[in-house]
Design goal:
It is a single chain. Helix 3 packs across helix 5. The protein has eight helices and three strands; from the N terminus they run ααβββαααααα. Helix content is about 50%, strand content about 10%. The two termini are about 30 Å apart. It has about 150 residues and is of the alpha+beta class. It has a single domain, classed as Orthogonal Bundle (Arc Repressor Mutant, subunit A). It has a three-stranded mixed β-sheet. A hairpin with a 2-residue loop joins strand 2 and strand 3.
Length: about 150
């Protein structure tokens, strides 16, 4: 639904267009000693702060995952961990991370797009969706029941 509302109709998902549609700001940082990406709310605007990894696929995944946290209401429904203190239990953190991962999979590789490309090689899928081979294999397995593709 978000893809349709934002006018994204084909891969790769334009995450900047999605963020513009949702009024979410993206910031990139490279700070020694701080390798985390995170979300914060300031003046009713969400900000996603991405630690630059040097790998486009990983940075795109982090943005999509953080968008999942925002859209799924994780920031409002739960008292979240902070930079200074872990508040969630390991079980709660796992569930929220898994929900955000599923959201990211759906956002970056929706079922109809994957279905259109299911006969493609993993190298072709990596170029089409601009995500890692690992993420493609996980999504492919979840959708089509195969362990991995070549």
């Amino acid at each position: 639904m978000i893809l349709k509302e934002a006018g994204v109709t084909r891969p790769p998902t334009n995450l900047e267009q999605i963020c513009d549609h949702l009024d979410v700001q993206i910031h990139y940082h490279y700070t020694d000693g701080l390798e985390d990406s995170f979300v914060f709310l300031h003046c009713s605007v969400y900000h996603i702060v991405i630690s630059i990894s040097g790998r486009e696929a990983l940075d795109r995944w982090c943005i999509a995952h953080m968008l999942g946290n925002i859209v799924l209401g994780h920031c409002h429904l739960y008292t979240s961990d902070t930079m200074h203190k872990d508040i969630l239990t390991d079980s709660e953190r796992y569930i929220l991370d898994r929900e955000a991962d599923i959201f990211a999979e759906e956002l970056l590789m929706p079922m109809p797009w994957m279905d259109n490309h299911k006969s493609s090689s993993i190298n072709q899928l990596e170029k089409v969706f601009r995500v890692s081979k690992e993420v493609i294999n996980i999504r492919y397995n979840n959708l089509f029941g195969k362990k991995s593709i070549n």
